[in-house]
TrEMBL record:
Residues annotated as domain Cell envelope-related transcriptional attenuator: 187-352
Start-end of Low complexity biased regions: 445-470
InterPro entries: LytR/CpsA/Psr_CW_biosynth, LytR_CpsA_psr
Descriptive protein name: Cell envelope-related transcriptional attenuator domain-containing protein
Transmembrane spans: 105-125
Bias (Basic and acidic residues) ranges: 79-98
Amino acid sequence: MSPADRLTMTDELEPVGDHTKVRRKIDNTLARFAAAHEELAAEEAKRQERRERFIARPVALIEQTRTRLQRVVAPVKSEGNDEKAGPQTRLQEKKQRRSDRSIRITRIACAVLAGLIFLATGALWGTKTWFNSKFTEIAALDENSSDIQNAAGQTGDENFLIVGSDTRAGATAEENVGDADTIGGARSDTIMLAHVPADRKRAVIVSFPRDLEISRPACERYDAAAGTYTSEIVSAATKVKLNTAYAVGGPKCLTKWVQQQTGLRVNHFVGIDFGGFKEMVDAVHGVTVHVDSPIRDTTLGMVIAETGDVTISGDQALSFVRARHVVGDPTSDYGRIKRQQQFLTALLQKAMSQGVITDPTQLTNFVTAFARATFGDNIGVDQMLTLAQSMKGLDTSKLKFLTVPTVGEPNTRGNEVLLETRSKELFQALIDNTPLPGTPEYEAAKAAASATQTPPSSSSKSSGSTSSDS
């Protein structure tokens, strides 16, 4: 046994007194402090190691990047700084600089172009969205109606029911049309059906006299002031004027009658108030119409005093499309229909002209005025451009303005009488996209169809069967 062991044993076996207890407590405390110090030292060493690694990583990455750049740049620098290099090397350096500069310019140009395209696309989309938001939507369409004939065959066709409302709401004294207090409600003062077939090779606009005698279907009551429908159902009626369909049942009722009468699928409804004509014309700085003789109305007064090609203002345009009692024109409503068709053509041509399309101010003012005065269903910038572009540039043989066939004279009730057979022929030609009745092409097709009909066989004659025309 070593002296140290004997000393330890002696210490442990010695009598335990107060002095020994104090000394042992001090020794234990010192041991704990020593252990804690060692743990703290170990943790600090670990933290220091982590700090060194954290600092070393980015330094290493920077060094690696610098080394790679040196590998790339060094050959160029050595070529450019090589004092012994001949003129050919300096020429290569010059070419390299030009090449680098061209690459940078090309990249910058591409980035700028991409940015401009993005901004332009966003601006156009935003502008169109803003314009579309200005149109007032009113339910009018029923594209799944059972009244539509050959619906599959009409795929791609565009049919715009265009209605000029005679509401006096918001009318000024200068417009000379009365006010909402004296002339309440709203009637369809102008009714046009614009048909653009899927092939876009022609456009046909058919006008309906406001006093056409019809059998009106049952419809929901329409509140023109609020632009909404009520729960009241207006009963069907016979021998009433066409403009009453809109007056009692609004766009839905008028669309319903048009589809029953024509078999066409109406997929756009455009309603325009009186004031809309004036603002739209003023927005494009006037519209030019041809006048053979001065137009004076017994109610509205002098409308246009000049003759020839006359550029009319908004106020004149409003009277031009409304005049029904023109001196020297006994046709009344038919004369007005002709002027309305003339005005619509002139307005669309002006709106689609380069002077308006390329002038942001005029274009914005026109679309804003149109949107403010327009209401309907499935209308907007795209839809109206389809109509305008279909009419613009078409020659006379491909752009047809017609009036639905009537007797031509009012009956005892003061109503125009529809020629049912001729009307059905007209609208069937639109549905089938075939030549219009009355045209040489129509007569030729009709003659060819008659020539190909098989005459009755002798057997049928002998059996006593007969053939007769209804």
